[in-house]
Amino acid sequence: MRQKKVKRAKADHEIGAGEIGKEPESENILAEFKTTNVLSFSAREKSIFIHGKLADQDAVVILEKTPITEDSLAELFSDSRLKLDMRNDIYSTYRLQAPPQLNEIKTTVVCPATEKHVKKYQRQETFLVEETGEDYQSITLPYIQKQSLSIQWVYNILEKKAEAERIVYEDLDPDVGFVLLPDFKWDQKQVDNLYLIAITHQRGIRSLRDLTSEHLPLLHNIFQKGKAAILQRYSLPSSKLRVYLHYQPSYYHLHVHFTKLGYEAPGCGVERAHLLADVIQNLQSDPEYYRTRTLYFPLRADDELLSKFKEAGRL
Amino acid sequence: MRQKKVKRAKADHEIGAGEIGKEPESENILAEFKTTNVLSFSAREKSIFIHGKLADQDAVVILEKTPITEDSLAELFSDSRLKLDMRNDIYSTYRLQAPPQLNEIKTTVVCPATEKHVKKYQRQETFLVEETGEDYQSITLPYIQKQSLSIQWVYNILEKKAEAERIVYEDLDPDVGFVLLPDFKWDQKQVDNLYLIAITHQRGIRSLRDLTSEHLPLLHNIFQKGKAAILQRYSLPSSKLRVYLHYQPSYYHLHVHFTKLGYEAPGCGVERAHLLADVIQNLQSDPEYYRTRTLYFPLRADDELLSKFKEAGRL
After folding, report:
1. Any CB–CB contact under 8 A between B261 and chain A?
2. Could you tell me if B188 and B233 are in contact, meaning their C-beta atoms sit under 8 angstroms apart?
3. pLDDT tens column, B16-28
4. Å between B245 CA and nearest CA of chain A
5. Which residue of B has its CA nearest to A100?
6. Do A250 and A151 fall into the same domain?
7. Three-state SS for B164?
């Protein structure tokens, strides 16, 4: 081991002093990497997180393809090999084999990696659950009532015991009022990824499932005043906003998400998000829509609620 | 041009008959591509959309790096060059130069490309449009009827004049039948970003707006047989699938998207996607649901339909 360390330090130095066009190669430490398992993977982002062993030590290796830059295009087009996959009318697809130096893969090695590193990068599979109105009553509601996840932090916000300085807008009405504040995921540095949450002052509305036509004044109020507050504070009109609820929500106190249209906020997919405008329309035409309808949502493999659905033979 | 076409047809044939390990190279048509401008770019997705000229014809070239697959890892680790960028404590980063055949770039060429194609790929701001049933009749429908974007390529698929070998499953019934095939966006190398499209044999159903309870047998058929075909071919159960329609769709011939749950496919956001299971439920309880309901969807700043909504004072 000690010898190896010396060798690596040398390689470091050499690279620091490397001449252009004659860049020294690092020792390919990955040649001896033994994959244990793939922790996670993104086809969209072209990345993969791998757990394995590097010289008998636990290691995590992260590979991520690099963005295609405009200044590499001319060379990429002239110096690559092209293999035809498909042709139909004016459309054709190919596989392009680029010169390696134009098409690098960003590689991050964590070694030795602790169990915490491994867990951090471990992706959980998700499953789509189909929940009928009866499933909600017999499986989900008892689970929500028993679960211990505290929403004290929500009450702290509503009572100004915490985050009071972060509030963007508030309507104090106990029935239709709400607090609007930035979501933690938003750094508030630019509106391109604007993300705010409206939390109702009314307590006891757990989720979409509890909503009936009785709640229409509350929903209208959040929709209208939330949009107006965002227009005033961030100059963003309602045509640039995606306003929606989650089902399942991550906490069971009614809240509404306001995100910028075009920003692909986590959880804005059709499998989890419900546009507030649709919710209002559906309740207008059927007061019991969300009590009776079958709802679909993803759950992670390690979610306790998923086990409940499995135990009930519903998955 | 004629000569070129003959050569390409030959290449097609050769690839169809290609032997493993001795795959024929396509003519590198991109060597003569002249970039006009970059239409859009995603650092997150490692893709770039380029407008330019190919033998004096307008063309759009789309480059997208391919996902890193688990089965390529062993070879990738052993056969790559590694260049150290940074080392700090247990963390180090490198640039990895992979063998070209392990690190291909998916390339799509549209040629000749129309102005509409160029616009389609040009990055634009989007606006959320609110379309009532009346708006559809007075604004959207006349626009669809007048627009010139050809769907000949859809008919080519249905008539087996193109992409016949890509078909994963087909139900030939003229009323409830459909063709299931991989979407262009999917390279079919791993199921993690599975993306298939079911295209109905029945013609004349433009979109969600045309659906009534009459179409329930068609929708049920696509849902059930599409899921069964995916289970059989890719071993992916329905609990791992997100099955949905787009509104507005990108072409006005009814089609259904099947994507892997957890893969954030472009267009799977709540503002554009409608779960097929929800569509079926909504039509079951109200046969005219999609004819009468106000629908919300994003439109790009340069979309002609957006101008129509503006002209009508609806935005």
Report:
1. yes
2. no
3. 333 333 444 557 8
4. 10
5. B97
6. yes
7. helix
